Amino acid sequence: MAASDMRNRRHENEVPKKHKGLSVFMVIMFIMGEQAGAGMMAISRAFVDTEWYGVAILLYYSVVAGLMGILLGKSWMIVEERWPQYKSQKCGNPYPTMGEKAVAPWMRIPVSICSYFSLLGGDVVYILVISKFLQQMFPQLGMSFCVWIVLLSLILLPFTFLGSPHDFWFIAVLAISTTAVCCVLALLQMYYEFTAVTHVPAPAAVMTTDHFFLALSTFSFAYAGTPAFPSFQNDMKNRNKFSLAVIIAYIGLILMYVSMGLAGKYVYGDRVSGNVLESLSASPLRTAAQVLIIIHFAAAFQIMVNSPAQEIEEYLKLPKTIWKALDVCLNQPSLHQAEGIIIYSDSRSALDAIQNDNIEITQKIHSLLNQLERLEKNCILQWFPAHVGIEVFDADALAKYKIIKQKIRKDQICEINSERKLTKTITRLRTKHYKGMAIHPDSTRTYRACNNCPGVELTPTHIFSCPAMVAALQKIDLDPEQQLYTPKIVDIAAAVMEMHGDI
Fold this sequence. Notes:
The chain is mostly helical. The chain has 19 helices and 5 strands.
């Protein structure tokens, strides 16, 4: 079936559905859940080391980091405006994509490296902190700090296989709720200690250069999750509202940081530890706060690792969207009326992986294909170069209207067993993807000049209406567009090669 026919069938049969995605509230949960815990634990020591300047420094960092988040959101909206294909599909690596569109393709590499260092570095800190807490809470197990690190890494590994933020929104809720309750418990414990008869006044700290710059690193780390923001925005229902989510989230972070920082500074002074929970006296409140912060760090680990994981999946071209497309089709009510489905992909490596690899995602795909076979439905997984000829091309969305009600032609692109030059020409005639064609940001296309007609572009229309082709087509068929999937395509392609050369 031609791409244009399928596109028309989509508009006729597709039932509009509300776009699923994260709400503003959920994005606020993700932003706060990702960053609040580590900063909240260390901010008291930073306030002590910077004296009362710390409040002003924290506010400055909050404004700068919040502004960065807002500008990232606006930058992505510019990408969607100039490259409309990103409006209708999720991008697994939005941050490097912005670098590419703003500068050049090579900019993806430094952007990715900086993002990896920031997010994965934060994950390393989370694992270290959790391991230390667990060692302190379970000394009877006799496990060393290093053993806890390895064990914890193995426990957290399966959670890194989750999809985009929309697929694990509950983890964001868990992260911020545990942090908020932990903050309340810690503040209550500080209040009890401060009002106790045995309380010793907090000793004053002397600000030194080393401690001051160490405190600056703490303030920076408190807002180290910014590289994950484009992934959050990409999963939103309304991406234009991302700036609102950033503003509200950062107001909440400021309140949490200032309350914990000033309380720790006022109650413990120079005695406060780098992790304020370690300064609390042994009590049920402290134990409960430590358990909650462990849960928070485990949840925040998943949030921060997700953005690099999505980018790695994009580079490896894992056939994830094909699996989702099959799942969507199997749940379509109209499937029982259809002969089968066609799913297109521009990733040949993904299709090869389905055929040759035996990994978890390909096993899931084969399971879905077996379900279709039991339903006696045909399924074609078709490679399509560069999504040419289809205006909105995303496997998840496309599968929703590729359920067809007529016999499926299995020879979709080029079934001809002939020399490569001929089969290449047939493929390009069917896809209208010609050599030298350029697709511009406004979705317009330009083509190379026709060899026979000076000053005229070799467009899909002109390639057959060119005077040099008319005589040749008289011997074959006057309407070659209707013969692209018939045996006559061989003669048509040969005539095109003779008159136009390599297209």
